[in-house]
Write a structure and sequence with these properties.
The structure is a single chain. By secondary structure, the chain is mainly α. The protein has helices at 2-13, 38-52, 61-84, 92-105, 108-111, 115-122, 126-147, and strands at 27-31, 34-37. Helix 2 packs across helix 3 and helix 2 crosses helix 6 (115-122). The chain starts with a helix and ends in a 6-residue tail after the last helix.
């Protein structure tokens, strides 16, 4: 029933003209103690568009909504587990190298544009994305710490 309700809201949003339209903030779903709002979905769609360097396409909006929802849900689950295990360490150099790699792959270095400025062009929140990158690096640390004894290198 909850999944049907979530998908109903996602389909409802597909009626809007583009991902950056001005929409009233509403709660879409709850993951653990965290909520997902339509603002989160729109920001995640804009982030996906920025990372793929593609313009908004209303024919793909429904697909992007589903991808965005699942991405946010995964990030919230990872964040909950990171807090549960009190993981605070991550390699800042790896994070910086990851961001630099993205800038190179998107051709931003040649254009002398930062990833943050690129996100602004797409209406995406860079700070939320950057926090997600850190969450992923902390998640990797958590997984390694839990399963390092089972790894056979």
């Amino acid at each position: 029933m909850k999944i049907k309700l979530i998908f109903f809201f996602l389909i409802l949003f597909s009626l809007f003209k583009n991902a950056s339209s001005n929409i009233e903030d509403k709660i879409i779903a709850k993951v653990g103690n965290e909520i997902i709002t339509n603002f989160d979905i729109i920001n995640e769609i804009n982030t996906i568009l920025a990372l793929t360097n593609k313009p908004a396409n209303k024919n793909e909006f429904g697909k992007l909504q589903n991808i965005a929802f699942l991405s946010i849900k995964k990030r919230l689950i990872k964040e909950t587990e990171i807090k549960k295990y009190k993981i605070t360490k991550y390699n800042n150099t790896d994070v910086n190298n990851y961001i630099l790699g993205l800038e190179n792959n998107l051709g931003l270095v040649q254009q002398n544009i930062s990833l943050k400025d690129h996100f602004k062009r797409y209406g995406a929140n860079y700070d939320i994305y950057f926090e997600g990158v850190i969450i992923n690096f902390k998640w990797n640390s958590l997984i390694y710490s839990l399963y390092q004894k089972q790894l056979d290198l």
